[in-house]
Each structure stands twice: as structure tokens, then as C-alpha cells.
Amino acid sequence: MPKLDRDGVQIYYEVHGEGPVILLSHGYSATSDMWRGQVEPLSKTHKLVTWDMRGHGQSDYPDDPAAYSEAATVADMAALLDAVCADKAVIGGLSLGGYMSLAFNRAHPDRVSALLIIDTGPGYRNDEARAGWNQTSLRTAERYERDGLGRQSEASPEVRMSRHRNAEGLAKAARGMLTQRDAGVITSLPAIAVPSIVVVGENDKPFLNAADYMAAKIPGAKKVVIPGAGHSANIDQPEAFNAAIVGFLEAMR
């Protein structure tokens, strides 16, 4: 599978199928492997692009902490669209990947044809709440620095199925990509001007209110709750998840 050179950082990606492009981004400490169950149904009608964020999976793990940021991730996503010759794409992801998809839309609305926001939070308006999230993110970084990859087996399904070369990249990604700097993403929701679907697992309790909020704030957004699913709705209930996404995409045609 190809790699994209981003100023010396090699970004791993896969391309499946032909047609309008879908770019799917994984959650924190997961990899592109989490989308295995979506490759067959989505690549029937689209060119599906999945990838590993920097510090994850088969992409590079830069030594410089400054190489990990929301801006760098959004720029990686734009470069991936360039690599597959896509002016526009359906942009989506789970958790951190969904947040980065919203950040991408904020930075490049002209390159987004639709949004797939899955088990995701949009960030925080309140500085105190954001600081609490950041403290949790920094503790995650410290845990990876202290324990390495040994506790991956205790995580949610999309993380358990992922393979990383070491924990250092995940720690740097937690510090630079999982932490949030401002309210830019959450305040951008009312300006979203493309078809959007907000998907959340019925049992993903930390994200249920966030899904309600995004569905209310994004104009015309469709919300789907996947019965019997947790945080990784696409893995927990793949048939229901795939039906929801395929139905949404078909309605756009």
C-alpha cells in the first residue's frame, strides 16, 4: 500500500474501489484497520481512502512533539485528497477522526461534499471543560509513556485490533492531537453547509449528548443511533452501521 511523504513524515494510506472519494479517519490509538468491515460495502460505489494518523499504525512516529497537532492532521488529510486527485470528498471518522473531520471542514469547506460524524464529540465552548478534557488527554499520554502498549488489550474494540510500532507516537499524539486549543470546531457547526450524518452507538454514553448537540446544531443533519453498539459502532454492529452509511450516501446521489 502507498505512503505519502509529508515533509519527511511518511503517512500510510489505502485506496479501495472507484468513484467519488470517501476519506475515513480512525480514532485515537486505533488505525485504519478499524474500517475493515466498511471496505466492501463502501468501495462498491466509492473510492474509499483509509489512513493511519501520524504516531499510529504504519505511518511515521516523528520525534519532534511539534509534528503532532490538529493543523498537521488537517494538512495530512488535504494532502491525501491531493494524492488521490480528489477536489472534494465525503469526509468522516470516529471519535478523534470525527473531530478532525469537523476541523477539516472548518479549514477546507470547499473540499467537503458530506460529513460522516461517528461516536464523536465536537469539543468544548467552555474553557474549564476543555481544560478537564486536556488533563485527561495528558494522563493518557503519561500512561502510554509509563506502561507502553501493554494495556491496549483493555481498550475498546477499534483499539484492541490495532497494531503500533511503539507507544511513544501515541503519547505524542495525545499531547498534540487529542488535546484541544480553542472552541473553533464546536462554534463552526452552524456554518456546515453539506449533508451530514451523526452516528452514535446506543451504549456509547459519553457521546450520546454530544451526538444530540451536533445533530441540533448542524443544519439538516441526520442522526442515527445504532442499537446494541458502544463507542466503535461500526465494529459492534457492522450491518446496522453499514446500512445507515450506505443509505445516507445513496440519498445524496
What does this structure look like?
- The model has no long low-confidence stretch (mean pLDDT about 95).
- This protein is α/β, with parallel strands linked by helices and about 250 residues long.
- It has an eight-stranded mixed sheet, sandwiched between helices.
- The chain is about 40% helix and about 20% strand.
- It has one domain (about 5-250): Alpha/Beta hydrolase fold, catalytic domain (Rossmann fold).
- Strand 3, helix 1 (about 35-45) and strand 4 form a beta-alpha-beta unit.
List keywords for this structure.
single chain, 253 residues, alpha/beta, Rossmann fold, 10 helices, 8 strands, globular
Task: Give the helix tally.
Answer: 10
Shape: globular
Could you name the CATH topology? Rossmann fold
Low-confidence stretches: none
Order of secondary-structure elements: EEEHEHEHEHHHHEHEHH
| Category from helices, strands and their pairing | alpha/beta
The biggest sheet amounts to:
8 strands, mixed
**C-alpha Rg, in Å?**
17 Å
Q: What's the total number of strands? A: 8
Mean pLDDT metric? 97
CATH architecture: 3-Layer(aba) Sandwich
C-alpha end-to-end distance: 29 Å
